[in-house]
């Protein structure tokens, strides 16, 4: 680049910059100099927006007349097109592939909690061993995560011999046989407590239910009834339910539960 061309471009740049920062004629002292950009000059980044295509606006628009659909045929009609997966009448791909397995929509997933993790949190004073340890206690201590999308907590594993295991009172959802026996051998108590979605949410976020009288729901599905009334599973309803009631259908169980007087708060 020659010197004259460089000098000319520099002069044009300086002149344009000086015009942008010229003080306004009648403005106040605080607004005597304008900035290089204004709100009225803001625009989307180049290429970030696209103008919608306008159909049926004459032949000059290239999308007039038939509006890009062509002449006649299935795809030219109102509600044009075929359904997803349609292959002209032949057997579509999704019917040629055999089905394998199924998704059990009634299944429940429990967050695993090992006894060693519980011991570690107790030794760090993140969980108090002198109070009943519930699902909400575990959730608020961050010993498990993602509990709001699960059905509860299941205690698993064996204790860590290098960490103390004081006598605990646990009120979790489920226990493995070895984990429950370890807590009992240490002088503690275990109880399997049922929570529905609302009850589980109340355990995790008690501050959202202040002033709301929400009673703890009892199990209604037969598998849950049989589990939480079974003393071998440490069910919390085992002591207050007779053996005959454990064989009731869900409808009979609901009628009996509603007829029983509710304890006063």
TrEMBL record:
InterPro entries for the chain: Ribosomal_uL15 (IPR030878), Ribosomal_uL15/eL18 (IPR021131), Ribosomal_uL15/eL18_sf (IPR036227), Ribosomal_uL15_bac-type (IPR005749)
Domain named Large ribosomal subunit protein uL15/eL18: residues: 112-190
Biased composition range(s): Low complexity: 22-34
SUPFAM superfamilies: Ribosomal proteins L15p and L18e
Ranges for region Disordered: 22-41, 47-90, 243-265
UniProt biased composition (Basic residues): 69-80
Biased composition (Gly residues): 57-68
Family matches, as HAMAP family: Ribosomal_uL15
Protein name: Ribosomal protein L15
Source organism of this protein record: Kwoniella shandongensis
């Amino acid at each position: 680049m020659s010197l004259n061309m460089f000098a000319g471009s520099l002069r044009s740049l300086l002149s344009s910059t000086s015009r942008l920062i010229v003080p306004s004629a009648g403005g106040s002292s605080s607004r005597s100099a304008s900035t290089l950009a204004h709100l009225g000059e803001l625009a989307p980044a180049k290429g970030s927006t696209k103008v919608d295509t306008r159909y049926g606006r004459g032949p000059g628009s290239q999308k007039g007349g038939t509006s890009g659909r062509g002449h006649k045929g299935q795809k030219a009609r109102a509600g044009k097109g075929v359904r997803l997966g349609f292959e002209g009448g032949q057997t579509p791909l999704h019917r040629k592939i055999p089905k394998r397995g199924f998704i059990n929509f009634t299944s429940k997933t429990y967050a695993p909690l090992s006894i060693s993790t519980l011991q570690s949190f107790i030794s760090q004073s993140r969980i108090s061993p002198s109070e009943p340890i519930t699902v909400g206690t575990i959730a608020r201590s961050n010993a498990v995560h993602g509990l709001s999308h699960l059905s509860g907590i299941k205690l698993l594993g064996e204790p860590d011999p290098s960490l103390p295991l004081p006598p605990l009172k646990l009120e979790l959802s489920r226990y493995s046989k070895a984990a429950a026996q370890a807590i009992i051998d240490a002088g503690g108590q275990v109880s399997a407590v049922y929570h529905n979605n609302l009850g589980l949410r109340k355990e995790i976020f008690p501050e959202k239910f202040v002033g709301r009288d929400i009673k703890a729901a009892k199990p209604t599905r037969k598998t849950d009834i049989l589990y939480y009334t079974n003393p071998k599973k440490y069910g919390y309803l085992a002591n207050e339910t007779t053996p005959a009631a454990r064989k009731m259908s869900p409808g009979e169980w609901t009628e009996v539960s509603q007829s029983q007087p509710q304890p006063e708060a």
